[in-house]
Each structure stands twice: as C-alpha cells, then as structure tokens.
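User: Run a structure prediction on this.
Assistant: Running it now.
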Amino acid sequence: MNRVFQTQAEMPDTGKLQISVESRVDRNPVADAKVAISYTGEPESTFEEMNTDESGQTQQLELKAPPLDYSMEPTESQPYAQYTIQITAEGYQPVTITGIQILPEVTAVQDIRLQPIGAAATWPDDIVIPANTLFGDFPPKIEEAEIKPVRQSGEIVLSRVVVPEYVVVHDGVPTDNTATDYYVRYKDYIKNVASSEIYATWPDATIRANILAIMSFTMNRVYTEWYRNT
C-alpha cells in the first residue's frame, strides 16, 4: 500500500509554488487577491498568506517536499507533498483548491479562474486534485481492440489532421451518459494530462517523450472521431 507523508520531518527537500489568478469571465488578471496556504488534511493550519500583484500572480513560495529520489523510481512513499490554497478577492466568489502537488527542485504553477459574484456558474468553484496516476489507486484502463471495426454509415472521419482549439472532456467513464462534458482548450488539456501522469522532476527528454505520446493519442481520437460511448 502506498504510504503518504505524515510529518514535515519526512520532507527534507523543497519545491516552489506560484499562483496565477484571473477572472473566469474575461480572463483579466485579478490583482490583490488573498491567497492562504495550508497543509492538505489540516485546513486550519494556514502558515502563509500572500496577495497577487497587478498581473494576478503571487511570488514564488518555497514549500517542503519529499526527497527527490522518490519521484525518480517506483516507490511506496508519496513522492510529492500536498497543499491546500484558499483564494478570496473583492467582487469574486472564494475558491478552495485541495491537493496541490509539490515536487522537489521544480516550480508548480497553479492557474485559478475566479467566478465574479452574480455571474452564472460555468465550472465547479472548489477543486480537489486527485493523486497522480503513478501513485494513486485507480481502476485499470478499459481494454480496446488494436484493430477497430469501421462502420459503413453515420461515421465522419476528418480528411486531414487538425489541431483543435478545444476538446470535449467527459467527466466519467465512456458509458456514463449522466457525466458532464466540458469544453477544455487543447493546450490546457495536454498540460493537465501531463501533470497528472508524469513527474516534473524527470529528465527533459523523458518528459518530452511522454507529452508527445499524450498528444499523439489525443490527436488520434480527434482525427478519427472515435467516441467510444456512441
């Protein structure tokens, strides 16, 4: 069973966190937003407070993290520390993000989009970041045939490869028709998948190879319009 760090003494290294806050409506930076940082699992343990500048960004903050070696090879110990941030700003709904992952010797960048008070909600306010897929306990991937049948009618395959601006993300298993579909920018989707499936401490060539594989798989789904729940 994977072991989660319980004490700060078990985290001898440090990583960095920078937070960027903008409006969810017009994407303008939110200046002077208050950011409170605590340890995940201890919401009342706020140990740092800071405000965003005119660009909507905070300064880079050094935070404790586990040893670097834990993210470089398989281990039963959690290779990243987890922190919770609470963001408040005048004229905006407050947001809490739980489970921000901090790895040693790298900088984590957390983008936050605040919902103006009175505006129609378009995204969940509070966010819980799940465990990295390399460490968390997730169900196995759904098996797929290497060669898939092509239907003779009712199927449209693009005539050329097109990099989309948005992709549709189904928030559930393919057969769950009740799950919500979200329109996510392609570059944000690739970034988020990479952040969930690899560690930023890996060598540059390893990170690039994994991101290319993620992009290739995503573009295959877009190009062939292979929607498995239809």
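The longest helix spans residues 204-224.
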